[in-house]
């Protein structure tokens, strides 16, 4: 090599631009997109509560916000946290992973925190409207209608025949399950939300006509307050007491004597409530049910606790007659046996032909309830008006609408369905006032949670929940690699000995720590909780975050559509779709 | 999930790695731990391409493209040059594929770490020569199809245990990491950065193209490799102190193999045999880590 051949300066190629001029988004044939979806629990909740969001907030210790999120869909969280049959937990996607989230325990905790700290909810309300609505009955349906009409800008007068509000919640559910202070707090909040409750103001069929003239609409939530009779021989008032009347007297502070053995006929929660109340008043109780334990509509947990408390359960026995036996009564019972299945899947029972007799002090009925007055039910031949899933609206020509709701209308009769009824009525009336009756059904259909029967007030009022997809997240759509097994909380309870001689609430207070841990168990199905996995794993740095790190967007200039964000999202908040053909 | 203060990006969009490329994810995480004062030496591998053709670069730190077999030697030279300039701040990193590490670059690597050169050597492992079209390497696992182990001639040799080979050099730090465990990976990279002497990181980086898996599965597969003990997460200090970072719940290897096209031909008895090998390797590791401790 000669000297001339050695280069003066070493020439070194140095890069001077980034790869950002390559728009690799053109490679993409699948397109990810952020899309919050519907959790199965929220679709199963008759009140359509935004459970995945509630648990997310509660898990972060944002108790007030979580509680307000409930109140937007359900004005009675303290009540429902205690007495709702929580269908949400039955469909929880966590069920097959370890155990469902204790949604009702968290709900109860949030309501109790709010009550203890005297929290005032800050909820968005629509502007005031000139119309006023009369609500007849202050049970769960009436309270719910009044609350939601309040959110929608309407003033309400709630007519309650009895001296205290609450309906079945106050008179039909024993203290040990639903203490009156809890109920009082809920009712006070509904009143401060704008509803006026007129106590001791019964409405009759005649005065109803007046209400329809004085108010723009009337909501009838009169409930089913009369127990169904047994319709057997010897059913005389001395021997047989309507179980609902009994519960009402006990809660009203006038417990009748309960010594000796009381028979309770029925298999629902009311039967169990009566039997356990009898035990607390010093008597003995036997529940007689025509089907089997597993067929009882009562909550199994309540049945177990009743048995622990000494209540007897006799299955496959149906009452046939009652005859006086000195100061007592002989209750003649038909033995039943299971033969085939009923349409609802429960075993069908038929008499075996044998009978047996039981000597009892008295008999309580709990075999279903009826409307106290025939006009509490919607007329059968419907004129003009519409019939919705949870209410019936009647509006003869020119007359102000009359809305029937609650148990007399609902197919499934319980507190949360009654709340759903009040909510549906409020939405329907608002739509009727603003857009006319023709618009009601379509407007309500837009507010369905996951295309199910539950309606969302947040969606109705145009809140962010309306942007969610109605797709209900399935267990297989959860990336369970991101969740660790965690035992479901156990609700601490009074001991049996403490239970049977007082009406103290059985379920004890749960700590904030336990409740947070429980709420954190929630997968938050379908809801982005800012875990950042999509951002973290993107091989193309194509997930951009805003300043507060909580708003993300996909940069489609570079996203190659690999799908990692969707696959690594633990909770299906990213949707991957075929790219539209150019 | 996102570790604090790691929002700065050192890798650019628009790189030409395949959709779902685990090697790209690995680099992104690694540089979050390393930061600006880093020089990368990249011997021939997919990353030579991903880093961009002249005049582009996908990385915001200097990259020296080096010959395939020279990862260890080039880094040694770069380190020496920096030392001569008095730059003790900058970390020199070799970023090489498994072919460039387990096979052709092995002697340069062994020589460099034997001299305890002050650098970090990262092998991102996609278990074959991917850049040139999926040829088997000594990192390719037993049972895998590649273009050079096609059909019935699937690979019948075990994967070389590269970490143990490095540990045998008694270097200050050797560790495994996986793209499915970002926090563990970043922690190990930071730890390596804070040390002096030869440090070795073996990063499991799935390759959708070469493994015949859907692109969205690449992290899941990497996670399963850890969960099944196929790729345990552990670190070794000074060639003797072992720490196992993750104790899996004994998932079966079967699921991992079933999900990948490169293993489709394997029969039940092959999978049983592989399970036996994985169990054996795991027991060996436990023994080294102080018997199950
Ligand atoms: C000496 C030499 N032989 C062969 C090649 C061709 N070559 C370039 S990259 C490559 C494969 C690299 O495989 P690996 O190190 O595993 O990295 P990967 O591409 O898989 O990321 C080969 C064979 C080369 N560049 N130099
Ligand atoms: S071939 Fe594999 S390692 Fe290489 S760029 Fe594609 S996915 Fe990444
Ligand atoms: Mg390779």
Keywords:
heterodimer; A: 582 residues; alpha/beta; Alpha-Beta Plaits; 7-stranded mixed β-sheet; 5-stranded parallel β-sheet; 19% strand; B: 293 residues; Rossmann fold; 8-stranded mixed β-sheet; 11 helices; 9 strands; binds thiamine diphosphate; binds iron/sulfur cluster; binds magnesium ion
CATH topology of the largest domain in chain A: FAD/NAD(P)-binding domain
* Number of helical stretches of at least 4 residues of chain A: 20
Helix/strand structural class of chain A: alpha/beta
Oligomer: heterodimer
Structural class of chain B: alpha/beta
Mean pLDDT of chain B: 96
Give the secondary structure arrangement, pairings included:
The complex is a heterodimer of chains A (582) and B (293).
Chain A: E1 17-18, E2 30-34, H1 40-44, H2 51-59, H3 63-71, H4 77-83, H5 87-90, H6 103-116, E3 132-136, H7 140-151, E4 155-160, H8 168-171, H9 180-192, E5 195-199, H10 205-214, E6 217-220, E7 226-227, E8 240-242, H11 243-251, E9 261-265, H12 269-280, E10 284-288, H13 300-308, E11 312-314, E12 317-325, E13 328-341, E14 347-360, E15 362-365, E16 369-370, E17 385-387, E18 391-394, E19 402-405, H14 415-435, H15 440-445, H16 457-460, H17 496-500, H18 512-520, H19 533-537, E20 543-545, E21 552-554, H20 564-568, E22 574-578
Parallel strand pairs in A: 3-4, 3-6, 4-5, 6-19, 8-15, 9-10, 9-15, 10-11
Antiparallel strand pairs in A: 2-22, 7-16, 12-13, 13-14, 17-18, 18-19, 20-21
Helix pairs in contact in A: 2-3, 2-18, 3-6, 4-6, 6-18, 7-14, 11-12
Chain B: H1 22-34, E1 38-43, H2 46-50, E2 56-57, E3 63-66, H3 71-84, E4 91-96, H4 98-103, H5 106-114, E5 119-125, H6 162-167, E6 173-178, H7 182-194, E7 198-204, H8 208-211, H9 218-227, E8 234-237, E9 241-244, H10 253-258, H11 268-288
Parallel strand pairs in B: 1-3, 1-4, 4-5, 5-7, 6-7
Antiparallel strand pairs in B: 6-8, 8-9
The structure holds thiamine diphosphate (TPP), iron/sulfur cluster and magnesium ion.
Iron/sulfur cluster is lined by residues 17-18, 21, 23, 46, 50, 126, 130-131, 207-210 of chain B.
